[in-house]
Design goal:
43% of the residues lie in helices and 17% in strands. The chain is α/β, with parallel strands linked by helices. α5 packs across α6, α8 packs antiparallel against α13 and α19 packs across α20.
């Protein structure tokens, strides 16, 4: 491993990947002119000594498309989430004990699984929506709460459309919503704010957040949002005029349409609480924070960590959730939004925050040196990749220090590609973890990933390395 001292003051935004790799590239690459062979050479070195397991049976639990119809997880389904069954599988397989930890808790799936197994858990997420959803899904609801939820549903059914003009700080609101639908959403949000019980108010607010996309002019797709009135045709994309599209897809009575969506969601949640929630009284601790600061938030030993970080694919997950963040008043200014984006893992260009890169990996440097800058959509991509693994090194060191002897860490992660170069995130993390002191138990290959049409042909000889997997680490007792 190549480690760069803090005193070198290497700025993550000012590193030349070619210069960094020049001293080590000839040693590892026998044929520098063979683009694919250079990559395979690196992959083979990284994969030495790793026990690969064909885990295709877990592919639907990792790429969990049924969240929208799964009790509890359907309250606010995440496109990026995995299933409770996946976490249960590893908890049972490893006979996990002690505290279960998720440093990227998202909608709280790991925490739900821990709770259902009568295990204490701790979750962290930098996204305030994720924290709210996790808290709500892992709350303890008693008979009084259930009675109040029923009263709230009855009350909402009686609400009439207001003639007031409701305001929002979200500058794209008029583009992302029909005017009457926007006014209906804002009116209902004001009604929710008046609910006395903090626990029930949060639950109803999560219900409100969960219907926003379904009544809007946008949908979450790829690295952000796309407008529903933009259609793909054989001749390319075409835009249907917004008013024409809205008249076609939304009913005339838009207030009752939105109100009906909210009532429907609340009734589903109520059904889940009554029929699927159980009587488990264990509640996780959930923090809104950067995962790299977890050791400042709690000091207990961790028995089993299970998580899925943002992938090193430049997806900006705050951009994907930006409508809910703005409309739900989690952010009220562009500065607040920017501040949120730089708090998380350095997995996209918006998250770069001038932090120094203090850790370097020789294999990663070889791969970064192969990037064709003319084919990168941003010149900052090399810095994103370096920053990502710098953050991962920090996280793994802290996890190692706080994991109990014979404890485990499970990481659900996908590999990525830039300008025809695959970044094998799973085995790079394994290499970093081994250097820190973890043992690599195995690498479960759950499915192979697709890539953009522009890269597909170039990556054909390397497609086996473009995969989604689960890396299982163990801290042996010394």
């Amino acid at each position: 491993m190549i480690k760069i001292d803090h005193n070198n003051n290497l700025d993550a935004n000012n590193i030349n990947p070619i210069e960094q790799a020049q001293c080590i590239l000839p040693y590892y690459v026998k044929d520098p002119n063979d683009f694919h062979k250079q990559q395979i050479n690196v992959f083979e070195k990284l994969e030495r000594g790793i026990n690969f397991v064909d885990a295709i049976s877990l592919r639907h639990e990792v790429n969990f498309k049924d969240a929208f119809k799964t009790p509890i997880q359907r309250w606010y389904p995440y496109r990026e989430g995995y299933s409770q069954k996946l976490v249960n599988y590893f908890i049972n397989k490893l006979d996990a004990r002690g505290i279960i930890f998720d440093p990227f808790s998202g909608s709280g799936t790991t925490l739900l699984s821990a709770r259902n197994n009568d295990l204490e858990s701790i979750g962290i997420d930098v996204n305030p929506i994720s924290v709210l959803v996790s808290e709500t899904e892992n709350e303890v609801y008693n008979s009084d709460d259930i009675a109040q939820i029923k009263k709230i549903i009855s009350y909402i059914k009686q609400i009439k459309k207001s003639n007031s003009d409701h305001k929002t700080s979200f500058s794209l609101a008029d583009k992302t919503f029909n005017h009457d639908i926007l006014q209906s959403l804002l009116q209902l949000k004001n009604e929710i704010a008046s609910i006395n019980s903090n626990k029930v108010r949060k639950l109803v607010f999560v219900s409100w957040l969960s219907i926003i996309e379904s009544v809007s002019n946008f949908k979450k797709e790829g690295n952000g949002i796309k407008y529903k009135n933009r259609k793909r045709t054989v001749k390319g994309y075409t835009n249907i005029p917004q008013e024409i599209w809205e008249n076609k897809y939304f009913p005339v009575d838009k207030f009752n349409y939105v109100k009906g969506k909210l009532i429907e969601k609340l009734e589903i949640i109520l059904f889940d609480i009554i029929n699927y929630y159980g009587s488990v009284n264990i509640r996780p601790r959930i923090y809104e924070s950067n995962c790299l600061d977890f050791d400042k938030l709690f000091k207990e030993e961790i028995g089993f960590t299970f998580f899925s970080p943002p992938y090193c694919n430049s997806f900006d997950y705050f951009e994907i959730h930006k409508v809910e963040l703005w409309l739900g008043d989690f952010v009220t200014s562009k500065e607040q939004m920017r501040n949120l984006k730089v708090k998380g893992f350095r997995s996209n260009t918006s998250s770069l925050n001038n932090k120094y890169v203090t850790f370097k990996n020789e294999y990663l440097e070889i791969l970064v040196s192969l990037f064709d800058s003319s084919k990168l959509w941003s010149k900052r991509i090399p810095n994103v990749v370096r920053g990502y693994f710098d953050d991962f090194n920090t996280l793994l060191i802290k996890l190692y220090n706080q994991t109990a002897d014979n404890g485990y860490v499970g990481i659900v992660v996908g590999n990525s590609a830039y300008s025809g170069v695959i970044i094998p995130t799973d085995v790079l993390i394994a290499d970093i973890a081994r250097e820190i002191g973890f043992e690599i138990e195995c690498l479960y290959i759950t499915r192979h990933l697709t890539t953009s049409s522009q890269q597909k042909l170039k990556l054909e000889p390397l497609k086996q390395y473009l995969r989604e997997s689960i890396l299982l680490l163990k801290k042996r007792k010394k």
